Structure formats: C-alpha cells, structure tokens
Here is the input.
Amino acid sequence: MSTLNPDPTSASLLLEVFTEELPPKSLRRLGQAFSDGITDSLKVAGLLSEKSIVTGFASPRRLAVHITEVLNQAPDYPVREKLLPISIAYDAQGQATAPLLKKLASLGYADIDLSSLEKSGEGKNEALYLNVVAKGAALEPTVQQALEQTLSKLPVAKMMHYQVTRANGDLVDVQFARPVHGIVALHGKTPLQISALGLIQEIKPMDIAFYLLGQSRLRVPINTKPHSRPREKLFPAL
Here is the structure.
C-alpha cells in the first residue's frame, strides 16, 4: 500500500465498485448497505468530522459512496485500560507473568516497556494499567478493511461464483452478487491502493480529472476504462 501524508488533511473520498448488472429490486438496499458499511467504519476509526456529508449511489452496474471532509490520518488519542491485578500480572520474583504478556499482545503492545505500565490502587485492589497515546488510524488501510467487510455483509440473496485473472496470470475464485470489473478509491486527487474480490484499483491520470468533475456534482460519470461501456449516471441510494 502507498504511504499517505501524515498531515491530517481532509478531502472528499470516493469509493466505487463496478459490476455487471445488479438485481434491480435489490439496488436501493445494496446501495444503502454499501454506503452505511463504509461510513460506519470510517466514523469508528475517527476519520470523519461532524461536517462530513455522506451520499450513497447505486445503479445497475455500480455501487458507490461519496463522503466529504475525510481525514487521511486520524488524530492520536489517549488509551487507559485496566490490564490485570498486580497479584496476577507479576510473579513472586516480580517478573511479568504469561497472562500479562498475553493481554498486552492482544492489545497490540507486546513490545511495550513494562516499566511504563501504570500501577493504581492499594492492597488487594492494586492493578496494572496501560496508559499510552495510541496512533490514529490511517485512511488507506481503514478503507481496505471497510471495503472487504462491507462487501462480505451486503444483503445479497444469491451469490455468483466466478474466477478473476490477476496480472500475473493466476486465477482467483471469487463470489459476489455479480462479477466485479473494477474498483476506484480517490481521496481528493490521490488514488488509494485498494483491492477486493480479486481486483486491484486501476485508475489512469487522465481519468482522475473526470472523477473530480463528477465529485463536484456528487455523481460519477465514468468508470476506470472510459471506452469499455457507455457512461452511466449514478442515482442516490436513498
């Protein structure tokens, strides 16, 4: 994945999936579920603001969501979490016990300096606490995870099984409502390196200008291969 600018600059996010003809009766539900799934994940990660505006789209061959004011790096935040009672965290020799090390590893702090852990309370109530400043979420991996989870949870009545040929010639078994032919993820003018359903985002510099024009009107007039099929307007999922 590409490295995003650590400066917490906000811009509009466009995430779009190109498919073959989706079931007409399911379009609104699929569009709403797609929009909600992506938005909820970004919100939990702290990448949206109170002013972010979400617009979901759905057409027979596309599912998309456009969100304004999306950070490329969420702010760092304080974490204080109770780990274990002191009597369980350390053995008689004052060494960290297996339960403490396991607890720290599960929280992503396996390599933390044990002397930095906080002791609080008295007597039998004395416990060990993790007290750190955690790194805020980065946009690109968050979008990647959000897309994978959202696609897997869409209300699809019947999955279609098919194969996708990767650039190296390998075949990948995939299942979705209909075959997917492309993915686009743009944060402002910056493409995000996103992959799903056996595909990796491909967008050419000449295409970005069209997408930026489309975003300014809250619609997406083209796909990643502009000459592969007629242009198709997206309609709000709501």
